[in-house]
Amino acid sequence: MKIAVASGKGGTGKTTISTNLALYVAGQGYDTVYFDCDVEEPNGHLFLRPVITKKEASSIPVPVIDESKCCACGECVRFCEYKALVRLGKIVMVFPELCHGCGGCTIGCPNHAIQEQEREIGIIEAGQSGKVGFVHGRMNIGEAMSPPLIRDVLQQIPNKEVNIIDAPPGTSCPVIASIRDTDFVVLVTEPTPFGLNDLGLALDMIRELGIPHGVVVNRAEDGNRDAESFCEKRQVEILAQIADDRRIAECYSKGELILIGVPGVQKRFEELWQAIRKRLMA
User: 264 Cβ partners below 8 Å, 6+ apart?
Assistant: First the structure.
């Protein structure tokens, strides 16, 4: 079972929900692994505090031009829609930072003048946090493309019962790379105009991908029904609500899990887990 936790907007509490959900599910006796795919700024480790036992590099293949064979015909330049290859007179230049590692230029070169070499874009670390397995990716500073590293992180998914995937915020390619093969997506929002606007964008994306989904309202306020009204209008189920509670903010600021530090929160995660199971078993 692969469950992604995503949000249209950053700062809504996505990591709070995903790390505590992983802890709750593991506490119910399920083999559970948490994957932090927010590889540009992973922070799940700050809360789960895993013991890292495995570390490996993530890389993509980039083209290397053999100038003795290259006739600057431009076939590779025409193929590359990411502009990682540019022809200047009789020379073809490679911009590795723009290369997506698809290998099309190598295959399409009529003179076999292109070879590939691996370029490291980040690292993958794995370990254990109590009963919760842990995997995350860290992208190298200056890298522009995170989907290849996200794919490498997700390739670490073992044959476990429950895999919780902490997706990057937003609705762009890194998010789609994180959630496209999941069984269910939990969309985290907050009851503010910005939060609900970006939830709408995330809903459009999820529905285009055809993945079952539901909403968690974080920082829910007494008397504020904006999130309920929005979800009724967009016909999306609210799976659980987490109250706007100062004790939760204090736990977060200290890097502590609210499931442990805030009384009464366990009930909210029980509701969330049961709602997800009900949807997946329907």
Answer: none
Q: Residue 220's beta-bridge partner residues?
A: 243
Once rounded to an integer, what is the mean pLDDT over residues 127-142? 96
| DSSP secondary structure letters along 132-178 | EEEEEEEEPTT----HHHHHHHHTT--S-SEEEEEPPSSSSHHHHHH
Q: How confident is the model at residue 4 (pLDDT cuts 50, 70, 90)?
A: very high
Can you name the residues that pair with 98 across neighbouring β-strands?
none
Place of tokens 């939990």: 186
Closest CA to 216 of 65, 10, 18: 18
Euclidean distance between CA atoms 154 and 148, whole angstroms: 10
Confidence of residue 8 (pLDDT cuts 50, 70, 90): confident
pLDDT by residue (tens digit) across 223-252?
999 999 999 999 999 999 999 999 999 999
What's the rounded Cα separation, in Å, for the pair 117 and 258?
45
Q: Provide the 8-state DSSP code for 168.
A: P
Kindly provide the residue ranges of all beta strands, DSSP E only, lying in the chain, ordered along the sequence: 2-6, 32-36, 51-65, 85-88, 91-94, 114-129, 132-139, 162-166, 184-189, 213-220, 238-243
pLDDT of res. 112: 95
